Amino acid sequence: MLFRRSTLRLASLCTHVSTQRFASTKTLKETLQEVIPAKQEQLKSLKAKHSQKVIGDVKVENIIGVPALKRLLPAAPGGKEIIAESMLWLLLTGKVPTEAETRQLSRELAEKGDLPTYVEKLIDGLSPSIHPMTQLGIGVAALNHDSEFQKAYESGIKKTEYWTHTLEDCLTLIARLPALAARIYRNIYRQGAEAPAIDKDLDLVGNYTALMGYGANKDLTEYLRLYISIHGDHEGGNASAHTAHLVGSTLADPYLAYSAALFALAGPLHGLANQEVLRWQLAMLKELGGNITLDNIKDYLWKTLKSGQVVPGYGHGVLRKSDPRFIALQEFCDTRPDLLKSATIQLVKKTYQVAPGVLTEHGKTKNPWPNVDAASGCVLYHYGLTEFKYYTVIFGVSRALGALTQLVWARALGLPLERPKSVSMDTLQDMISKGA
Ligand SMILES: CC(C)(COP(=O)(O)OP(=O)(O)OC[C@H]1O[C@@H](n2cnc3c(N)ncnc32)[C@H](O)[C@@H]1OP(=O)(O)O)[C@@H](O)C(=O)NCCC(=O)NCCS
């Protein structure tokens, strides 16, 4: 394995990172500098030796699972759930961070977390009736005003240096997302109430809930730590991560690439599903009144399907069994008696008993099992964050971990501009008839 470390580069990096340095810990960037050369070599060698080789299918069980991550990754001080920083570190470097490395990264993000005034003004000027996801996408795109990558590109940096400036932008964006998302929340739902200052000793999600005005709500904070960590990534093939990759492949800066990803996430077949699940469940609760029996839920499922709608929270483009993240959220609920008493959580559990059967009988979906969104919003609702139109914004804060990690690696490996092949239907017909 190649192992390279440039003290010169490190000296310049240190100007960007935390002023508080935990003894004998490496920063995220230093760790990445060690990991990237080996991966670059690996890609070169793979392309040279095996570019024509067909590989087998990758199954979900072959990939490190959510339960293993929950055991391995550090939690916040005083908390039990893994935190976004430890997940980010793992996604970027492939290594499990130590507690000290996680805390150091938390501090680095907290120090970068304040929004520039021009973005505050921009967001404050938007009508509260504009959907929170639209506002988030606008805010993220505008943050590119400060893009290090864009500046460096204009000054004529080498291709091999792209990733370092991309990383700077990605970390700044991840750091600023809580302040941006919380400002949108306060503007729309709290008449623009003043937010507390970012606490430099708190993790990213701890600060996010505090900025939204839920700092004292420890249950919500712990839940969001888990939710944001496990929602961060699930293979780059999902629509939002792919959008970030596609736009990023044009060498657009990370802010523009992630803003585009957010608009993909805003679709009801993707991220908006968690808003839709809750809307659907509340409508079912209203219609069934106190009569929540399995048979009544079945009837409601059929009514949804017969009216031509999808059952939100069920099905998946890739998975063919219950989403492990859905199971992780169920386990979170199972350890908390207050959640088990909640009407919406009970409805999630009962729906899980009958929906796979109904969807199988319906016969269309390839995967009749629940995805993570079947449960995610109900817990937020129970813990008092009831404005479900906002839920996809939380997903947007989370998905940045995966999509932006992918962008750093795309630049480190020098991946090419993505060019989708496009043919007309006539050409396709022609190709088929010629047996091409
Ligand atoms: C996630 C989703 C978009 C995947 O779509 P997909 O890859 O096309 O899934 P499939 O191949 O299983 O779809 C085959 C058919 O089953 C239907 N189907 C899939 N999931 C369904 C569901 N939950 N309810 C009803 N019908 C469903 C599709 O609409 C499609 O119908 P069509 O042939 O008339 O177009 C789809 O399952 C869905 O719409 N789920 C509900 C929304 C949701 O929960 N999204 C969050 C995903 S994490």
UniProtKB/TrEMBL annotation:
UniProt subcellular location: Mitochondrion
Q: What is its main location?
A: mitochondrion
What Pfam families does the entry give?
A: Citrate_synt
Q: Which PROSITE patterns match?
A: CITRATE_SYNTHASE
Q: Which SUPFAM superfamilies match?
A: Citrate synthase (SSF48256)
Q: Which family does it belong to?
A: Belongs to the citrate synthase family.
Protein's recorded name: Citrate synthase
Q: Taxonomically, what lineage is the organism?
A: Eukaryota, Fungi, Dikarya, Basidiomycota, Agaricomycotina
